[in-house]
Amino acid sequence: MFEGNDYGCINKRTYVQFFIKFVYQVSGEVVYMKKKSMNVFLQTAVAERYDQYYLSESGKTVDRYEKELFRRRLENIPRVPMLELGCGTGHWTRFFADCGFQVTAVDNSEPMMALAKKKNIRNTSFIQADVRQLPFAGHSFQVVTAVTLLEFVSETEKVMEEIDRVLVPGGWLLLGCLNALSELGKKKDADEVFRYARFFSPVDLKKFLNRFGDPFIEGCVHFSENFELLDHTPAQDTVHPAFLVAAVKKTTKLKDDEH
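Predicted structure:
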């Protein structure tokens, strides 16, 4: 677990080093994301360790901040059927279901999906599928969510095209993304794994989502350069948040051939 105080200050391991080794290390060897044929989330060992991060004190704090922010963005969205992309072990799936949504949760990892199903999350159906080629007709969902998915897909544009296809005009897209401007983002290129992930600045994310409408973006999890959590302290606004939540209402119409 993290070595630090109750406020999330990490003394001997940085957040980056801990998170990456914890999630991506399999049988003592780091699996590099630059090997495009290797999807680490298909590894049973990775799936089994994934949820353990949220059991650490710092993990619990980060999780609380992220969900508080997401909950605010969901307040004015109708409780309609939701598509969650990259559901993993169902950590966020349970949150969305508890918020009152009927969730269709999609992931391409069989080990992750197996763990998610064991949680018996109410009002949820799980489908193993490739997010680049979703098994749904156009106009299928009024809400689509994806939390830290886009960072780890090789064909981001294809994923966004699929989201655009299945999301009804007037529907909502909500993304949880890692911020390129944060201390986490600044240090990612020094790590063997995160250097191959794509982080987004708020400006980049807004440009990326303009196809849907005018996105609203806000952040949380403010790390100092020493990876001390600064949320709800006077120093919070001196750094960029590591976690961004973007919400956009789709105002564009689907093309005639998208059905």
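Summary: Residues 15-249 form a domain with the Rossmann fold fold (CATH 3.40.50.150).
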